Give the backbone structure.
Amino acid sequence: MARWVVDTNVLIVASAADPSSPFAQTGTHVPIVEQEAVFRWVQALRKEPDDVVVIDMPHRLIPGEYANKLSKDDYGRRVMMEKLSRGECEFAEVDKDVDGHGVILGDAGAKIFDLQDRKMVAAAEASGAPIANACDTDWCQLEQEGVLAELNVTVTHLLDAWIWPEYKRMCDEKKK
């Protein structure tokens, strides 16, 4: 059994690679070969009843983000809705702040500048499940700075061979 906090970018990339999607191969900077790898990962997640997705409770910030970024017709969102309807999910208690962002206690929480990522980190911290990432280089930066290690949170980069050179390229561009 595997447990996953699935970052929305995974669902967006998988949806872009879905051959039946009306949104196929658009809306992402990830090359098609990598999109297809993420699509296969989400397909495997969908088929395996012992693989569960972690959803925050009581506020359901994670499903709210899925609904905000993906239509009901997008493959990635359909998979998440199926997992929930079949009970292939686990609930992690996550509080929200006055602005509606996930709360992470302690000094490490303040170091997570992408406020949208806080709910994912809080759910991973509460559940002990890793975060699945496809193309968000913010996770690379948080790993490099040791922020996630402080929280005992891990990230599985589904596109490990692609994401680190992409992260380095972005860092190099920032230096210019």
The first strand starts at residue 3 and ends at 6. Residues 32-47 form the longest helix (16 residues). The chain has nine helices and five strands. The chain has a mean pLDDT of 93.
